[in-house]
Amino acid sequence: MKSAASNPLKCWLEAALGFFYPERCQICEDERAVAAEGYVCARCRSREGGVRYITPPFCERCGLPYQGDITTRFECGNCREMDLHFQSARAAVTASGIVLEVIHRYKYRRALWFEPFLVELLGGQAGPVLRRQRWDLLVPVPLYPLKKREREFNQAERLAAGLSTVIGIAHNPNLLRRVAPTRTQTLLSRSERARNVRGAFAVRPKAGLHGERIVLVDDVLTTGATTSACAQALKASGAGEVCVWTVARGL
Questions:
Q1: pTM of structure
Q2: What DSSP letter does each residue of the chain carry, written as one string?
């Protein structure tokens, strides 16, 4: 795998970002931070309200973190009440503090300079696990075409591409498509979210899946309704096991 220093395109992009943006943290606007860090400084990452990595104990199914000492495998109440079609879901960090701010600015204000920071979080936590478990393919959660045109990009596609570069697992941004427009999930209840995305995803015709082990990639997981609907479509078309990795986990 090529290092960042040996990738001429990446070096050119970093030089271009450095020309247009000062080497200053885009969160505190005080400390030094460079393009390769996603313009998020070490102080902002480590301060209260900064990056909170998810470590055990957490739900073995959806990755929801828990406080306290839990020494046995367990599933949370959310998973016991839902018919989830993925094997497991994990996230690198909690969706709180600066991470949530970065994700919102990245998605809705096209603050793409934060992307190296988000890929670093995801790759650093997901990489060792996925390499050890030998998954075959990364697939981003798709946007409906109209929504993608309005936003001008799909954050899940870009994160999956970045993760693919970091860990060396192929990604396919065209395998899965969203075939029905859906309401935003933000203000919906758990049951409403599941109904909202039911039948919303399909695998492209003649995809030729034959038991591949697929990793779904997205920015944030909350109840898992969207990724479960994606996993259901993939498995119905011949995929084997499906797991989920996201940058952040809603609490």
A1: 0.89
A2: ---GGG-HHHHHHHHHHHHHS-SS-TTTSSS---GGGTT--HHHHHSTTS--B--SSB-TTT--B--S---S----HHHHHS---SSEEEEEEES-HHHHHHHHHHHHS--GGGHHHHHHHHHHHHHHHHHHHT--EEEEPPPPHHHHHHHSS-HHHHHHHHHHHHH---B-TTSEEE-S----STT--HHHHHHHHTT-EEEPTT---SS--EEEEEEEESSSHHHHHHHHHHHHTT---EEEEEEEE--
Q: Which residues of the chain have pLDDT under 50?
A: 1-6
Domains and CATH numbers, the chain: 56-92+126-249 (3.40.50)
Q: How far apart are CA 219 and CA 79, in angstroms?
A: 20
pLDDT of residue 68: 72
Strand pairing report for 137-140 and 176-178: unpaired
Amino acid at 45: R
